[in-house]
């Protein structure tokens, strides 16, 4: 590595000598569409703050495509059948003994959404917060509102790489991208994320009542006041606290969130999509499209479904066209049902919903031994699905099994990989079926090789 650095230095010096007096060398021109960090870090205008906010919302959805395809494949909620590249089947499903290493297929695909894109969003949030603090055009309340929003998104994004590499740990000190801190454990990362979200909650409280001082996209319709954004912050915190196994903390966060036991289960903030120059909903597929690349419903979801479950009827569309079929050296996979959740290619995709919050409430009560409250929350979900009240055993283990089952269908294929994470949280990865594809279940992923190369470079 030291030799590489030496040769690199010589090459750089040669290039400087060659071009130092080159009359053909163009002067550096600032890109007005991509201003430098320095230009917004010193007394940014309100317009610049607005650009940074909108940019953060855009980066906030960067994970959706890859995680929806990959993590939901790992948990066997779906298959992402791809007729152009068999590795989406063979490698992601762990067929023929394939296991992930630091150069695992998907670090350009899976790794972008699971690692690089979240950290880009985190950096965008940091730039936004820094810019708002020095902006003389903002009141103190405005600064706190912007900081609270930025920290809320930042906390959400940190949870993505943390759950991807799990016990391998993530970097949380990334203020200086050229000299980041070391990896911390999964547990320490979750505790750090809790402080980020709590700080954001305090900022939004200090911002006071009233509307958020800048424009948010339609994904935050109904959540564009400081008070409503606090509720979003607490909803995300409830999810985090479940991973931390802080069950009373889950309930406390839920009480301050937008959870509504009698409300619309789909209520919640979302990632918006649209026509050019925006991007289309990446999970939308035309019904019965004759294609060889598509997200399809995993056969176990059909096999394990409760009769007359409305979630199955609403979310899974049985193709009348030929099934989506892909063959590899590991066998043939056939998708008979496709995703039916999205009305159009401009439909928004929620990133946390009331239905999940009610299920988190059930889970927290079950883990605290509060059986009556757990069953009551379960019944809200079951009755909304048209399958009636829960009549099974009420031991803690039985209730957790029931809750995890309901989460499979209520949160199916959402851009988070809930089932994969849920099975790992309860040491039930061996219950995820592999008989349909002959593959394996991965508990976690290694750090991308480029990440390790950077540490090696800095250390030499």
Characterise this structure.
The protein is mainly α. The protein is built from 17 helices and 10 strands. The strands form 5 sheets. A two-stranded antiparallel sheet has the order 1-5. A two-stranded antiparallel sheet has the order 2-3. Helix 3 runs antiparallel to helix 6 and helix 3 (46-60) packs parallel to helix 7.
What's a quick, concise take on this entry?
The chain has 460 residues and is mostly helical.
Secondary-structure map:
Elements: H1 2-19, H2 37-41, H3 46-60, H4 64-74, E1 78-82, H5 87-90, H6 110-133, H7 140-165, E2 170-171, E3 183-184, H8 186-206, H9 226-243, H10 247-255, E4 270-271, E5 293-297, H11 299-303, H12 310-315, E6 316-318, E7 324-328, E8 331-335, E9 337-339, E10 349-350, H13 354-367, H14 371-384, H15 396-410, H16 418-425, H17 449-458
Antiparallel strand pairs: 1-5, 2-3, 4-10, 6-9, 7-8
Strand content: 5-15%
* Count of separate structural domains: 1
Distance between the termini: 7 Å
Overall structural class, as computed from helix and strand content, comes to mainly alpha
Find the CATH topology. Serine Threonine Protein Phosphatase 5, Tetratricopeptide repeat
- Main pleated-sheet profile: 2 strands, antiparallel
How many helices? The count is 17
Top CATH class:
Mainly Alpha
Strand order of the largest sheet: 1-5
Query: What is the helix/strand order?
Result: HHHHEHHHEEHHHEEHHEEEEEHHHHH
Give the averaged pLDDT, no decimals. Answer: 90
């Amino acid at each position: 590595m030291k030799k590489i650095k030496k040769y690199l230095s010589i090459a750089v010096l040669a290039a400087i000598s060659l071009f130092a007096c080159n009359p053909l060398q163009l002067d550096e021109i600032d890109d007005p569409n991509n201003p430098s960090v320095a230009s917004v870090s010193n007394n940014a205008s309100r317009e610049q703050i607005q650009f940074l906010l909108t940019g953060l919302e855009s980066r906030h959805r960067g994970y959706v495509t890859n995680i929806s395809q990959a993590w939901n494949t790992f948990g066997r909620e779906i298959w992402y059948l791809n007729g152009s590249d068999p590795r989406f089947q063979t490698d992601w499903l762990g067929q023929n003994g394939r296991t992930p290493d630091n150069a695992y297929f998907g670090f350009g695909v899976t790794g972008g959404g699971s690692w690089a894109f979240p950290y880009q969003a985190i950096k965008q949030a940091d730039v936004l917060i820094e810019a708002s603090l020095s902006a003389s055009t903002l009141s103190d309340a405005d600064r706190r509102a912007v900081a609270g929003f930025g920290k809320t998104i930042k906390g959400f994004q940190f949870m993505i790489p943390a759950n991807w590499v799990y016990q391998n740990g993530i970097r949380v000190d990334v203020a200086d991208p050229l000299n980041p801190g070391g990896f911390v454990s999964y547990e320490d990362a979750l505790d750090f994320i809790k402080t980020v979200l709590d700080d954001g909650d305090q900022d939004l409280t200090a911002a006071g009542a009233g509307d958020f001082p800048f424009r948010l996209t339609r994904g935050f319709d109904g959540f564009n006041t400081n008070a409503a954004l606090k509720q979003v912050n607490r909803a995300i915190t409830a999810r985090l606290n479940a991973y931390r196994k802080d069950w009373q903390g889950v309930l406390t966060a839920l009480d301050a969130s937008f959870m509504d036991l009698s409300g619309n289960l789909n209520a919640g903030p979302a990632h918006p999509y649209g026509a050019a120059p925006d991007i289309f909903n990446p999970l939308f597929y035309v019904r019965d499209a004759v294609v060889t690349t598509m997200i399809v419903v995993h056969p176990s979801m059909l096999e394990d479904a409760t009769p007359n479950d409305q979630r199955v009827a609403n979310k899974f569309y049985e193709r009348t066209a030929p099934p989506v079929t892909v063959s590899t050296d590991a066998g043939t996979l056939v998708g008979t049902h496709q995703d039916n959740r999205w009305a159009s290619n401009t439909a928004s995709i929620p990133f946390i919903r009331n239905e999940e919050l009610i299920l988190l409430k059930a889970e927290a009560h079950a883990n605290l031994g509060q059986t009556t409250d757990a069953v009551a929350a379960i019944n809200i979900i079951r009755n909304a699905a048209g399958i009636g009240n829960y009549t099974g055993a009420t031991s803690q283990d039985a209730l957790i099994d029931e809750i995890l089952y309901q989460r499979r269908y209520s949160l199916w294929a959402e851009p988070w990989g809930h089932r994969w994470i849920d099975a790992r949280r309860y040491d039930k990865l061996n219950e995820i079926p592999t008989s349909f594809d002959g593959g394996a279940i991965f508990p976690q992923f290694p750090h991308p090789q480029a990440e390790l190369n950077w540490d090696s470079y800095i250390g030499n």
